[in-house]
What does this fold into?
Amino acid sequence: MFFISCSKIMITILFILICVGFSDGANVTPSVGRKGQWQLLLNSTGVVGMHLALTYKNTVVMFDQTGAGPSGYKLRRRFHGSTCSRSRHDMTDSTCYAHSVEYDISTNKVRPLWLDTDPWCSSGSFLSNGTLLQVGGNERGAKRVRFFRPCGNDQCNWIQSKKTLSDMRWYASSQLLPEHDRLVVVGGRRTFTYEFVPKISPGEKSFDLPFLHQTDDRNEGGNNLYPFLHLSSDGNLNRVIKTFPRIPGEGSRNYPSSGSSVILPLDHRDNFQKVEVMVCGGSSTGAFTAAARRRFLEGLRSCGRMVITGEKNKWNMEHMPKPRLLNDMVILPIGDILIINGAERGSAGYDNARNASLEPFLYSPNKRLGARFRVLMSTKIARMYHSSATLLPDGRVLVAGSNPHGRYIFHNVAYPTELRLQAFVPHYMERRYHSSRPNNLTIEYGGASHAIEYGKEFRVRFFLMRRPNNEMVFSAYAPPFTTHSFAMNQRMLKLRCRSLKRSGDGWVVAVLEAPPSSLVAPSGYYMLTVVNGGIPSMSQWVHFGHA
It folds into this structure.
């Protein structure tokens, strides 16, 4: 599903489909009520976390633009081998600084990674083998294709492909397709096309997409960049099958208005066929040009939900506690949506926003209208333009980045460059819930392949101090590539449980059923979590795919 929201129009086009060694509870002081906690993990990652991706090796790759000059991570030697001295030239030479790092969750350390061309405002998706396929960027990087294959031994690095994209992709989005391990890459600044990668044949080109021409708001910086792409599960490919109603209200949702969007969790009870999209936040009409004149218009409070499958497609609107833009939306293991980072006024772009949104919101989609939002514990660190967030296997949410400037600036500005790394700890991950938490989760599968085949049964085993709650849920989560308020490829499925048995010593064995096909769950690595009455386990990695 290809999904873009614009200032005057909201249309959805189905255009081409369009666990781990962690403790059993966060070691933090119990929070007051259910507001959660914040942890400061590192005082500096050295590199702004403009782009963020969790790998199945339990590391997080983050990177910035290479054109921002010196970062906060000075190298002793350039990646091609020559020494970085203390000379005036080397102290300002961009190649003597890291612009990408890999963060190890277990050791809480970062190591530098090499980047050849500039991936500023690029996109990415994980392939079925866990490799991050990353495309686009700025200038020399605008048509480049890069790979990062996680290794777990600190020996892996970025690899730049000799093959290139057909068109320049700056502020584009990408989505993994159900078959053939390929991505669709859509849009970009002054680029009104889509294309597929990796390329199958040398002559493969891009395809014009009229919708991008129609929604280009040139006076406001585009307002159709980083389009929201979501994979539906109904199997319609390679054709536009319907046009959806515009979302009610004024304002815009896509960059530089920069709201956010997710697919709500898919459920085995309807065979994963109810696909509901949610969009929250964004900027008021004219916010981008107003910010250039130092007038920061209030952002949008509205959220819209729409089921995109079936015949009745209607937006259902509600409101967040406060206005928000530049926000990230993270699907939590319990099925709720965490809305985090951002600002209350302005738009995306350098120094274009004010009034940092310091309080995350928790959205519970299954509660009654009017009771779905809850305000969580405030942070003291502003996360503005070029910030990001991603879910970790231990249930925490990693928060990084924020740099509303073209270079690393730490003084005499409204919002300095931010290199501190944080984690938000939801209340249910605290130790006081340990007695209800499924522990020591293991996954057992007897197939010949290392991947669990679609539709096949597999077993999970875990320990519970108490009898299982009647509301036992087994979720599978596809880790996204996150940048500019959009978590590309983020997806959660609630799996079918065939049987559940608990022995007298507290061990529980559940027989689960893998997703039915790649239309529902593209082949790759997922985080499997057991949720017992709203209390999740630590996640373990599982690989779904073909035989």
Observations:
- Helices lie at 88-92, 210-214, 287-292.
- The chain is about 5% helix and 35% strand.
- The longest strand covers residues 524-532.
